[in-house]
Structures
1.
Amino acid sequence: MLNLAVVENEKKASDQTLSLLERYFTSKNLPYHVSVFENGFDFLENHPESFDAVFLDIDMPGKNGVEVAEELRAHHLDLTIVFVTNLAQFALEGYKVSAMDFLLKPVSYVDLAHVMDKIVEMQSPKDFGDFLLPLRSGVRRFREEDILYIILNGHDVILHSKNGEEVSFRGSIRNIAEKVNPDILIRCNSGTFVNLLYLDRIDGDNIVLQGGATFPISRSKKKDVLKAMSVLYQKELVK
């Protein structure tokens, strides 16, 4: 389910966006949730990291939409930003904060549906599946979204789940590579796969996951890591 935010200080404009979103999701038969904020301060104080996308008005008192977007990016938050504005001259500022698109007021259904189609498509890589691994006690099914990272330790492979569980089994990195989705679980060095869904940041030649687990990125794998990040998050990365 998509979790969306609308940040708009004019009730008439926010009501219109809500109506268009309801029309879109009803036509697609897709679940969604939308929260409305009257200003950028309220949005930034209400866990913006929990949203998949934000429809962000530019011309707002106090903190305008560009300033809100700059603060999101300063905190390494990768939610999709769509500016909703009658100020087309702010397009250049939008590129600086990796805004996905612009909607000009008054927003039409055709334009909003086009943007929403892109947002829905961007989420599709997260709909990944399961795979089976042979353990000493038998065979176990794992969901890729539950895995934080996989690391080789001698002749054992250790899978670390996002809930803190560690599962050890005999195997090879090559065998793991044949099973997992390479767009999600990316090999960052000769003995480590990390789940890009839990990426916090790239720090020099290290990849840092949410929670602080840090792994070196080998020179031969850095291009693959950046490419996978670009595919998953659908934005150009600064190299």
2.
Amino acid sequence: MKSAVRAIKFFEHFSNTGLRGKITEKFFSFLLNLIKPRGNLILENLARVYPQSPERWRKDIRSEVYRNIAWTLTETLALQKNHEQAFDWVKVRNEEIINDLMKQKKGAVLLSGHFGNWELGASWLAQNAKKHGSKMYVIYQTIHDADINEYLIKIRERCGLVMINKNTSAMKIAHLLKNGAHIIVLNDISGDKRLRVPFMGVDATSMPGPALIAMLSGCAVVPVCIYRNEPFQHEIEVFEPLNFPDIKNHEERLKLVTLEMNKALEKFIKQRPEQWFWLHNRWKN
């Protein structure tokens, strides 16, 4: 979809803080509310998780979800002019948890999801790692449109992220972690139908990979979330590493570690549901 990439590149040059940012956000918000991508799925997901909620509330949340996506696009495009702007736009709580692990050369899985401006959050983590003479890795999933996929990889690499395809072997990723790598994992999408655990109180297929690499490496799993307080004003919160049950059975341990990861993500989403990406088909039959 080369025409879409050309349009995005136009807004990459145009978007900025101030008036240009507001114009860009209004354009994306208008487009999203007009097309309503996966609009029915958003409402179905909200009804599944919040069964007692009124329809009006679900539609209002859908509008806010589109607005969050519009600002995420606007801010991410404006960020391309200078990735160090992330330090100005983001305040961080408990960043010493990550920094101490880096100083000790200890690897970590940074557990996060598609909420707030997740692209800005990853950019801040990459810039912070660079300050400490380290690298920040992120596991990504290839999207169907080759042109948009290539563009996304380029802007992520431009901000300092090292890309790892989700099809990379768990042993290879665990080896990186054992050697001190910090790897971002967005673990809030559907996964292997053989692994089903609750997510937001509803049975869901889940990805086994994040739990598997944590088990193989023995490294810390550190939950990290980012919220937008205002346009171009964000807050990242870093949490203490998760504690997992010591169970010998591999399959049972994999399931319980995945469940604990899901619980950590749930806490972020419940605080600001309008800033989560409800467009994912998270609860597949």
